[in-house]
Amino acid sequence: MGNCFKTPSTDDITLLHDNDSQDGTQQAAPVPVGPPPPYQERAPVYYPSPNVSRPANMLTEDEQIKIAQRLGLISHLPTGVYDGCSKRGKECAICMCEFVMGEALRYLPCMHVYHKDCIDDWLMRSFTCPSCCEPVDAALLTTYETN
Amino acid sequence: MVLPGKVGDSLVDTQDMHKRLQKELTALMKDPPTGVKVDAESIYKNLSEWIVDLDGAPGTLYAGESLQLLFKFGSRYPFDSPQVMFVGPNIPVHPHVYSNGHICLSILTEDWSPALSVQAVCLSIVSMLSSCTEKKRPPDNAFYIKTCSKNPKKTRWWYHDDNV
């Protein structure tokens, strides 16, 4: 079950570097004594619908399917890196912080742009644009039709 | 860092929430909308609970009334909506405001968006009051205040009237 919940990270090179360096430090650290922490406390939390949060190992089958589909849809939305060009806004409406050069962004079909981490967190709860409330799946279909 | 039974409420979440609330507070202090006042000193002591003073808009049924809103923010703010209710001696008499201060307003639950803010919520509430044409309590007030939870977000609101 665990594997199908991982976000695809094939084209994200920064993540790979992170993993490498973490592996390196873990090897250098002394071997921890005692039993490993219980799995349940480490399970990632998902939001099958707004205001409902559950660790991954307590999701119903329908919720698992919904989450897997949602992850797939989110991965189809274009991403980019802030290059200092503020044509599509220079602030993330979710964290209210200005974009900094090099930060990962995600573009929604309605042309609103957010930090990738901020918007992905929201899209898992509700597949709508926080700024214009447009449902992202409907807007995705329109872009497919016009292209 | 992770509280038992509350998997995912990590320290990182709380830091993000504080950072955003700090930004909202700074913006509200610098450029407050008319009729909205926050007491920054009390908020700095506890950033997760805000008291906001509202003035009823001139030319409306609430003109001249002083009102107080209580905001409570959870560690998942702005992804989760804040708890918002009227407190203090003057709970406005309005068809969407219960006498215990709870407010029936869809942006506070199902229509919440993380792009909304304390300022946006305050302005929506002022606008909700301003469009009121007759001061009265919701028809189910007596039953609701006897049976509801202390947390208005626990109520399964049924948004039935968009005109008031």
From TrEMBL, chain A:
Which Gene Ontology molecular function entries are recorded, alphabetically?
ubiquitin protein ligase activity; zinc ion binding
Q: Which UniProt keywords apply?
A: Metal-binding, Zinc, Zinc-finger
Matching SUPFAM superfamilies: RING/U-box (SSF57850)
One protein family per Pfam: zf-RING_2
Question: What cellular component GO annotations does this protein have?
Answer: ubiquitin ligase complex
Q: Where is this region: Disordered?
A: 1-35
Identify the SMART domains for this entry: RING
PANTHER family, alphabetized: GEO07743P1 (PTHR46359)
Name this protein carries in UniProt: E3 ubiquitin-protein ligase RNF11
Source organism per entry reads Mytilus galloprovincialis (Mediterranean mussel)
> What lineage does UniProt assign to this protein's organism?
Eukaryota, Metazoa, Spiralia, Lophotrochozoa, Mollusca
Automatic annotation (TrEMBL), chain B:
Taking every annotated instance into account, which residue ranges of this chain make up the domain UBC core? 16-164
- For this entry, list what GO says about its biological process: protein ubiquitination
Cross-referenced SMART domains: UBCc (SM00212)
Q: What is its EC number?
A: 2.3.2.23, 2.3.2.25
Instruction: Please name the GO terms that the record assigns under molecular function.
Output: ubiquitin conjugating enzyme activity
Q: Name one Pfam family in it.
A: UQ_con
Question: Which InterPro entries does the annotation name?
Answer: Ub_conjugating_enzyme, UBC, UBQ-conjugating_enzyme/RWD
Please tell me which top-level EC class this enzyme sits in.
Answer: transferase
Cite the PROSITE patterns for this sequence: UBC_2
The catalytic activity, as recorded, is:
S-ubiquitinyl-[E1 ubiquitin-activating enzyme]-L-cysteine + [E2 ubiquitin-conjugating enzyme]-L-cysteine = [E1 ubiquitin-activating enzyme]-L-cysteine + S-ubiquitinyl-[E2 ubiquitin-conjugating enzyme]-L-cysteine; S-ubiquitinyl-[E1 ubiquitin-activating enzyme]-L-cysteine + [acceptor protein]-N-terminal-amino acid = [E1 ubiquitin-activating enzyme]-L-cysteine + N-terminal-ubiquitinyl-[acceptor protein]
Keywords for this protein: Acyltransferase, Transferase, Ubl conjugation pathway
What's the protein called, per UniProt? N-terminal E2 ubiquitin-conjugating enzyme
- Its source organism is Mytilus galloprovincialis
